[in-house]
Design goal:
mainly beta, Phage tail protein beta-alpha-beta fold, Maltoporin, Chain A, 22-stranded antiparallel β-barrel, 10 helices, 51 strands, cell outer membrane
Length: about 850
C-alpha cells in the first residue's frame, strides 16, 4: 500500500505521541479504517496511455504495482482490500481506465479529488470476484457459487455500530434474509428465510445442541473484519444451517511496526441520568511478514433504556436483558508464514457479558403483580445470587499446507467453553384466597454449560477446469445444566428483587453429542461461462442422554416433599443422514450471473428440552416419587429434521449497480412446537414450508450519492389435515423491507436508513394432536429510521448517529412473541418489551 502526503503524516507524530498515554490509559477502542489519504497526481496523466502487465492475484499487491508503474499515489485502507482479488491488467491503458479495470468486481471504486485518487467501498454486500469460504469450505469466488452470498465488510458494519446501532440490529439492517434483531440478550427468532441459521466465528460453530439463542452475544464488533453469509439450507458446515450460514471473520494482525487502534463512544436518549451506554476499546497489531499478531480489548457498560413515550423499557426476565449490562471482549491472534507457502493461524477469545447493576422488576409484595393486582415496576435494591450472564472462552488453530500430494490442505482444531446464566423467574401458584401455595411455587434461575471441541480437515485439488474439495469433520459436545432455587419467603417479601439461593437442582438432562462427517464437493467449469457443482455429506451423530429425575420432582425433594424419585431413563440414539447439493452458475457477462441450486440441511431440535419430561405419582410413595410415564430415548426418540431447498437467483455488479435477487422454496417433513405451559419442545409430524424472495439493490448515482434497498418477502406454513396453514408466529419470520440514501466524500459521510417489518399472524396454538386451537396470534409490524454520519478530523474520526429518528413507541417482535410464549399464567404486561426511543450516539476513533 502507498501513502501519499507522507510529510503530513510525519508532521502529526509529536501530537500522536503526546496523545498515546491518554488514549491507552482510557482503553479507547475500535479501530476505524484509516482515513483516506489525499493523493497527488501529475497533470495530464490520464491522457497518457501506457503498457501494463499486472498478474491476477491479491488486489492490494496489484494496486501497489499499478501505482508504481503509473506514477500515481493511491489512497486506500488495508481493510478495504483484505481478501479481495483482481483479474489483473494487461495492455495499453490510461490511469482512469486502468484503475477501473483493475477494480472490476472488487466492490471498490476510485474517486478522483484534489488531483488524486482514493478508494471507497461500493457499499453493497455482493462482489462477484471476492473470495469467501462460507459456500464451499475453501476460498472460492462468489461468481462460482450457485447461491445467495452476502459480504458485510468492516467499514459497512462499523458505519452502523459506531453510529450507535447495536450489533444484532445492524445485522438485520445489512443482511437481507435475516430478521430484525431483538434488543435484549437473546436473538431467538432472528431467523434466515424463516429457519434457524448456523452462526460461526472463524469457522467455529456457536450453535449448540441446547438451542440457547445467544450467538450474537458473543463478540464485540470492534474485532470483526467481515461477515460472510450464505442464505438458505446448507450442509457445508454440518447441522443447524437450515436457514443459512453466518460466518464472522475476526481481525488479524498486519505486518509492520506496531499500530494502535482506539475508540470511545457514548449513547443516550437523555431521559434520565441513567439513560446512557458507553464503550471503549483498544487494539495493537504488528509484526513481520513471517510473524504478525493482534491483541485487543473492548468494553461496554449499559445503563437504562427508554421507549418513545419516555418510559423505561421493561427488563426481560425470560431471556435476560442488556440494560445494566457490562461486557468485555478480549481477543488475540498470531499468524505465522513458513517456507513454501505453509501458514499457521492461532486465535483466542474470552468474552464476558453480564448483569452489573442493582435494578430489577418489582413483581409486587407476595407476587401481587402476577395476579394483576399491582403494576410491574423497575426498582432498585435488586440482589441475585445468580445473575444473568454469558461467558465464553474459545481457541482455534488453522494450518494451511499447499502441495500436499498435489492438494491444498486446511486443518482446523478448536475448543469452545461457555456458561450461560439466566434471570430469576417466578413459577408461582396461588390458592383460591390469593395466597401463595408454597408446595407448588418456586423462584429459580438456570445455568447451562457447554464444552465443544473438534477437528476439521479439508483437501482441495484443482485441475484445469475441475476443483474437488473433500474432507472430514470430527466434533464433540458436552452439555450440562442446573437450576438455582431461591428462598421463596424472601423473594415474596421483596417482590422478587432479592434472590437468596438455598438449593441447586438439575434443569435438563446431561447430553453428550458426537458427530463424524465425510464430505466431498466438486466444481466443474463446463465452459468459460457455465460452472456446475455438486456435493454430498454423510453425517453420523450420536446423542448420549443421561438418566434424569424430572425438574419438578427435584424441586419437590428440595422442599422436603419426598426423599427420592425414579429417574427417566436416558440412552443413546444414532442419526445417520446423507445430504446432497447441486447447482449451476451461468455468467451472462462479466457483470452478471444467474444460478439455480438444490440443497439440503439437517437439524436435531433441542434434545435437552425434549427429553427428561415425565409424569409421576400424585404424591411420594414411602418417600419416593414413582415414575408413571416419561419421554425417553428408547420409547420416543427425537427425530432429526431434514430441510430441502430449491433456489433460482440473479446477481449483477458493475461498480455502479450492485444487485442480487433470489426466489426460494424450502420444505421439511417434520416440525416442532413449544408447549405454552411447560415451555418444552414437542415434535410434530406436520410438514413445514417456507417460500419467498430475497434481494438487494444498491446504486451509485454519482461519486457521492448512493441509494439502496433490500427485502425479504416470505410465507411460512405448516400442513394440518392436508391443508397448508399459517405457521406459529413464535417461529415464523415476518417479511422485511429496508432502504437508505447516503452521501459521502473523502472526509464526510451521511446515511439515512429505514427498516420496516410487516404484520404476521397465525391460526392459534398447535395442540399435541397437531390441530390449531383457533386462538390466533398477531405480530404488528413497525418502521423505524436512523441517521448516521462521520467526519474525518485532523486526528481521528468522529462518528455520530440518531437511532429511531421519529421517536416511535412500539413493541419489538420479540416482545410480542414473548407475550405469546409466557402469558398463559402471567399478565402479558410483564413481557411487553418496547423498542428504544430516539437515541443519540457519538464516538471517536483514531489509528496511530
Amino acid at each position: 500500500m502507498q501513502y501519499p502526503h507522507r510529510l503530513h503524516r510525519f508532521a502529526r507524530k509529536p501530537l500522536v505521541r503526546a496523545m498515546q498515554p491518554l488514549l491507552l490509559g482510557l482503553s479507547l477502542a475500535a479501530a476505524l479504517p484509516s482515513a483516506a489519504i489525499a493523493a497527488s497526481l501529475e497533470i495530464g496523466a490520464e491522457s497518457q496511455r501506457q503498457a501494463f502487465d499486472i498478474p491476477a492475484g491479491p488486489l492490494e499487491a496489484a494496486l501497489n504495482q499499478f501505482g508504481r508503474e503509473a506514477g500515481v499515489l493511491l489512497s486506500f485502507s488495508p481493510e478495504l482490500t483484505a481478501g479481495r482479488q483482481t483479474q489483473g491488467l494487461h495492455g495499453q491503458y490510461g490511469v482512469d481506465e486502468g484503475l477501473n479495470q483493475l477494480l472490476a468486481g472488487s466492490g471498490l471504486h476510485a474517486v478522483a479529488r484534489d488531483g488524486g485518487y482514493s478508494l471507497q467501498s461500493s457499499g453493497g454486500a455482493i462482489e462477484v470476484d471476492r473470495q469467501v469460504v462460507v459456500g464451499s469450505r475453501a476460498p472460492t469466488s462468489i461468481s462460482e457459487l450457485p447461491g445467495t452470498v452476502w459480504i458485510i465488510d468492516a467499514p459497512q458494519l462499523q458505519e452502523q455500530t459506531k453510529g450507535g446501532v447495536p450489533f444484532k440490529e445492524a445485522l438485520g439492517q445489512l443482511i437481507p434474509g435475516l430478521d430484525i434483531g431483538p434488543q435484549g440478550r437473546t436473538n431467538y427468532g432472528q431467523n434466515m428465510r424463516g429457519r434457524s441459521a448456523l452462526v460461526m466465528i472463524d469457522g467455529v460453530s456457536l450453535n449448540s445442541s441446547r438451542g440457547i439463542s445467544r450467538q450474537f452475544d458473543s463478540i464485540d464488533p470492534f474485532n470483526i473484519e467481515r461477515i460472510e453469509v450464505l442464505s438458505g439450507a446448507s450442509a457445508v458446515y454440518g447441522g443447524g444451517a437450515t436457514g443459512g450460514i453466518i460466518n464472522i471473520v475476526t481481525k488479524k494482525g498486519e505486518a509492520g511496526p506496531a499500530r494502535f487502534n482506539s475508540e470511545v463512544g457514548l449513547r443516550s436518549g437523555f431521559e434520565t441520568s441513567q439513560d446512557h451506554d458507553w464503550r471503549a476499546a483498544q487494539s495493537v497489531s504488528g509484526g513481520s511478514e513471517q510473524i504478525k499478531g493482534r491483541a485487543s480489548v473492548a468494553y461496554q457498560k449499559n445503563g437504562a433504556a427508554y421507549d418513545g413515550s419516555g418510559d423505561q423499557v421493561m427488563l426481560d426476565i425470560t431471556q435476560t436483558d442488556l440494560q445494566y449490562n457490562q461486557s468485555v471482549d478480549v481477543m488475540g491472534s498470531l499468524d505465522f508464514a513458513f517456507a513454501n507457502g505453509h501458514s499457521l493461524s492461532l486465535g483466542a477469545q474470552w468474552y464476558d457479558s453480564g448483569y452489573d447493576g442493582d435494578k430489577g422488576v418489582d413483581l409486587g409484595r407476595n407476587f401481587a403483580g402476577l395476579r394483576g393486582l399491582e403494576p410491574f415496576e423497575i426498582e432498585g435494591g435488586a440482589s441475585f445470587d445468580r445473575e444473568p450472564r454469558t461467558e465464553r472462552t474459545q481457541f482455534n488453530a488453522t494450518y494451511h499446507a499447499p502441495e500436499v500430494l498435489g492438494h491444498d490442505l486446511y486443518l482446523q482444531a478448536y475448543y469452545r467453553s461457555e456458561e450461560m446464566a439466566f434471570q430469576p423467574y417466578p413459577s408461582i401458584s396461588f390458592t383460591g384466597t390469593g395466597a401463595i401455595n408454597p408446595s407448588r411455587s418456586y423462584y429459580s434461575a438456570s445455568q447451562q454449560d457447554t464444552d465443544y471441541y473438534g477437528l476439521k480437515a479439508v483437501l482441495v485439488k484443482e485441475w484445469d477446469r475441475f476443483t474437488l474439495t473433500y474432507g472430514a469433520d470430527i466434533e464433540r459436545e458436552s452439555f450440562d445444566s442446573d437450576q438455582a432455587l431461591f428462598d421463596l419467603n424472601t423473594a415474596a417479601r421483596t417482590g422478587g428483587l432479592v434472590a437468596d439461593e438455598y438449593a441447586k437442582v438439575g434443569r435438563y438432562p446431561g447430553i453428550d453429542t458426537d458427530s463424524n462427517s465425510l464430505f466431498a464437493q466438486g466444481s466443474w467449469r463446463a465452459t468459460d461461462d457455465l460452472t456446475l457443482s455438486g456435493g454430498v455429506r454423510r453425517q453420523r451423530t450420536n446423542n448420549d442422554v443421561g438418566d434424569f429425575v424430572a425438574a419438578a420432582q427435584q424441586i419437590q425433594i428440595s422442599k422436603g416433599n419426598g426423599t427420592s424419585a425414579d429417574a427417566i431413563p436416558g440412552g443413546e440414539k444414532d442419526y445417520q443422514v446423507d445430504l446432497y447439493n447441486f447447482g449451476a452458475v451461468y455468467k451472462l457477462n462479466k457483470a452478471q450471473q444467474v444460478w439455480a441450486n438444490y440443497s439440503e440441511g439437517f437439524e436435531l431440535p433441542d434434545p435437552a428440552k425434549y427429553y427428561g419430561q415425565g409424569t409421576y405419582s400424585a404424591a411420594p410413595v414411602n418417600g419416593r416419587w414413582v415414575l408413571q410415564k416419561g419421554v425417553n430415548v428408547k420409547d420416543s426418540a427425537l427425530d432429526g429434521i431434514k430441510t430441502k431447498q430449491v433456489e433460482l437467483g440473479w446477481r449483477h455488479y458493475d461498480g455502479n449497480l450492485d444487485a442480487q435477487l433470489a426466489a426460494f422454496y424450502a420444505w421439511s417433513d417434520k416440525s416442532i412446537t413449544y408447549n405454552r405451559t411447560t415451555l418444552l419442545v414437542e415434535q410434530l409430524d406436520n410438514k413445514k414450508r417456507n417460500y419467498g424472495l430475497e434481494g438487494q439493490a444498491n446504486y451509485w448515482l454519482n461519486d457521492n450519492w448512493q441509494i439502496g434497498t433490500s427485502a425479504l418477502a416470505i410465507r411460512s406454513q405448516q400442513k394440518i389435515d392436508d391443508r397448508w396453514q399459517k405457521q406459529d408466529v413464535t417461529a415464523a419470520s415476518p417479511s422485511k423491507l429496508t432502504a437508505f440514501i447516503g452521501w459521502r466524500d473523502d472526509h464526510t459521510s451521511l446515511r439515512l436508513q429505514g427498516v420496516r417489518t410487516f404484520n404476521l399472524s397465525d391460526d392459534g396454538n398447535v395442540l399435541a394432536s397437531g390441530q390449531f386451537d383457533g386462538n390466533d396470534h398477531k405480530i404488528d409490524g413497525y418502521a423505524t429510521f436512523d441517521l448516521l454520519g462521520s467526519q474525518v478530523l485532523p486526528v481521528g474520526t468522529l462518528n455520530f448517529g440518531i437511532q429511531n429518528l421519529m421517536d416511535k413507541d412500539y413493541t419489538t417482535v420479540w416482545g410480542q412473541r414473548a407475550q405469546v410464549f409466557y402469558s398463559a399464567n402471567i399478565p402479558a404486561d410483564l413481557f411487553d418489551y418496547h423498542g428504544r426511543g430516539r437515541t443519540y450516539s457519538l464516538s471517536y476513533s483514531v489509528e496511530f
